[in-house]
Specification:
CATH class of the largest domain: Alpha Beta
Shape: globular
CATH superfamily of the largest domain: Metallo-beta-lactamase domain
Largest sheet: 8 strands, mixed
CATH architecture of the largest domain: 4-Layer Sandwich
Number of domains: 3
Number of strands: 23
Radius of gyration: 26 Å
Number of helices: 24
CATH topology of the largest domain: Metallo-beta-lactamase, Chain A
Distance between the termini: 37 Å
Helix content: 40-55%
Strand content: 15-25%
């Protein structure tokens, strides 16, 4: 059964998207040097950067103790899941192919090892996509955010015990519901003797729900956002902006046994007092900050970091509430701004001293509030999302704060996200209400401009002038009209590449360079993944599973057939009536019918195997699934459930 469970997990939606990692799948020899236009752009960027007083570098290095001698972290089978020195080559002046602001940022962010924050508080930074925070309790270590995978968490704990003295883990705190902040937990605690595991309310529901319904699309887009297929280097990936990269280890999860529900709640955990601030619907739907009054240390989760964050993520997620985000930062200032002498977060480096902390949080707050308020102001004046994004320019005091620069989120993307949250994707222009899809648009644009040859000539002129936004728009139409046109693909790849080199955002850089790589080399199968565990299957509720199943029902396959399925999920003791009628799958908890078409009983893992993995019914029955009634109807439903392609085309037509 254990082997079957492992097989089932690998193909689930959760398993298909968690933990993308750097991989040299693109051909670096196809990369071009920085063009004269890019050289000029980099020079202008360098001249416009704010003065660097060295504070970020000093704060990032303060309290450094040591790091592991071997930079490679391996799984039990010897597979390298993380390299602490992956960005050690980033040093000196920025090369022509990297935005100088992004280069400066990564020089600070690349540091790794064990750091002392204040008496009784340490962090392990640079051992994965996130930070592990360690607080000394009366009997053991209190761990805040146990990294992305159990292999890196184990290595981080080994470093802590080696340097600070071996102690058990006496408690774990999850700051929020993203896997880089809980995935390593099973390396730290024994499930048979669980210590307190504290999390914000709705943690378990949100852990899976954000990744379920749109999980396949989110996962595919995440390969672009994080640059999963790019080689590491000055013409490839230079990180993810918020961090280096996610590790390739095993993601685990142990459900919390204590939930924080409101701001101001306190706990004494292994003798250490904590106060909590709830900050939901910001960077994550379930999230909290925490304050250690004895250590005068504020852990601000991920709502303030060394970069502007995403109001709307390029990978895809519900649009976050930038107004609430700014409000929670104001509340943090009100509650802790006059007290905190150290500030830490789940990513990046700390801030020290009350003045520096207050200034940093206030300017981050002002940035999110400015984006929100000015987007809404211009929206109410009739401006479209694109027009708003083009005009968005914060005051110098906000823009000159390094942590407000768009290394991860960007002003343009976030302004469009605010617009979408309030009034949706449509910009109000009637011509945009019912546009042709990309292929049909492409054919018509190519014809209107005078054919492929004429379009390429105009695009080359734009490239020669360094107008890559225009050349990319033109060439994208031609590629969608005729994806076999090699010259168009190469020129579009060149345009994307130069925009990637110029991007201050590591995410935009990764997206552009990933697009260029796929135009040149085609789509590579998603091979470089973390190893999700059965914990993540268990985190998905039956309702979420059935909601996802409904989104995969193909009307052409199910036709006008109807059926009722009495579903019994053994590991959660849930009974659900599933009805398929009018090509719509509806689940009704606790409902029943006298004579269902088919009755199915088994664990959630077996149901996933049947419907998501499309494994043979006989194999599932041999593993413990029970079926009574019309087997043919069940097989028809199984056949009608689609498995979306993990590696669908993005820069070319499907």
């Amino acid at each position: 059964m254990r082997t079957l469970q492992r097989l089932l997990v690998i193909g689930t939606t959760l398993g298909s998207l968690l933990a993308l990692s750097p991989a040299a799948t693109a051909d670096p020899s196809a990369s071009k040097p920085a063009s004269p236009a890019t050289l000029a752009t980099q020079a202008r960027m360098r001249a416009a950067l704010p003065a660097d007083n060295g504070q970020d570098a000093e704060f990032a290095g303060r309290g450094y103790i040591t790091t592991l001698k071997d930079p490679l972290i391996r799984a039990d089978d010897g597979l390298v899941v993380w390299n602490n020195d992956v960005f050690s080559w980033i040093d000196g002046d920025a090369p022509p192919t990297v935005n100088p602001s992004l280069w400066r940022h990564m020089k600070v962010l690349k540091q790794h090892g064990l750091f002392k924050v204040t008496e009784g508080v340490w962090q392990v930074r640079g051992y994965d996509a996130s930070n592990m925070t360690i607080v000394r309790g009366n009997t053991g270590w209190i761990i805040i955010d146990p990294l992305w995978s159990k292999e890196t968490a184990r290595a981080a704990l080994e470093l802590v015990n080696e340097q600070l003295g071996k102690r058990p883990v006496s408690a774990v705190i999850y700051s929020h519901s993203h896997p880089d902040h809980f995935g390593g937990v099973r390396a730290l605690v024994d499930p048979a003797a669980l210590p307190p595991i504290v999390a914000p309310e709705r943690f378990m529901e949100e852990t899976s729900s954000e990744w379920v319904i749109a999980g396949n699309a989110t996962g595919r887009r995440a390969t672009f956002q994080i640059g999963a297929g790019l080689p590491i280097g000055a013409q490839g990936s230079v990180g993810a902006g918020l961090s280096a990269m996610p590790s390739l280890g095993t993601i685990t999860l142990i459900p919390p046994n204590d939930s924080i529900r409101k701001t101001g709640e306190t706990r004494v955990i292994d003798g250490v007092p904590f106060e909590f601030q709830m900050v939901p619907e910001t960077e994550a739907p379930s999230e909290m900050n925490l304050y250690l009054p004895e250590q005068k240390t504020l852990f601000i989760s991920e709502i303030a970091t060394c970069t502007m964050h995403n109001v709307q993520t390029p990978r895809g997620a519900l649009v976050r509430d930038s107004l609430k985000w700014a409000g929670y930062l104001t509340e943090a200032l009100e509650r802790y701004g006059d007290k905190a002498e150290a500030e830490i977060s789940g990513h990046c480096w700390p801030r020290f001293g009350n003045t520096a902390i207050r200034n940093y949080i206030a300017l981050q707050r002002d940035n999110y509030k400015f984006i929100h308020d000015q987007t809404v102001r211009m929206m109410n004046m009739g401006e479209t999302p694109t027009e708003i994004a083009e005009q968005m320019k914060p005051p110098a005091a906000i823009a000159n704060e390094w942590s407000n620069h768009g290394y991860y989120g960007t002003l343009r993307h976030n302004a469009k996200g605010v617009f979408q949250r309030y009034i949706g994707w449509w910009d109000g222009i009637p011509a945009h209400l019912n546009l042709y899809p990309p292929v049909e648009q492409g054919k018509r644009y190519v014809a209107a401009i005078g054919g492929a040859g004429r379009l390429i000539k105009v695009a080359k002129g734009a490239i020669d002038q360094g107008d890559y936004r225009w050349s990319a728009e033109l060439l994208n139409h031609l590629v969608f009209a005729d994806p076999a046109n090699r010259q168009a693909r190469e020129l579009l790849a060149d345009s994307y590449e130069q925009m990637g080199y110029q991007s201050e955002s590591a995410v935009w850089r990764n997206i552009y360079l990933s697009g260029a790589a796929e135009l040149r080399n085609g789509v590579s199968p998603r091979k470089f993944m973390s190893k999700p565990s059965v914990d993540l299957v268990g985190a998905m509720s039956t309702a979420s599973f059935l909601d996802m199943l409904a989104t995969r029902l193909n009307p052409a396959r199910i036709g006008d057939h109807s059926l009722t399925m009495a579903l019994s999920v053994s590991d959660s003791n849930e009974n659900t009536l599933v009805t398929v009628h009018n090509a719509v799958l509806v689940a009704e908890a606790k409902m029943s019918v006298a004579a269902p078409t088919v009755t199915v009983s088994g664990s959630r893992a077996l149901l996933m195997g049947l419907f998501l993995q499309k494994l043979p019914l006989q194999k599932m029955e041999a593993a413990g699934l029970k079926v009574e009634g019309d087997r043919a109807a069940l097989l028809m439903l199984q056949d009608a459930i689609e498995t979306p392609p993990a590696d669908y085309a993005i820069v070319t037509p499907q």
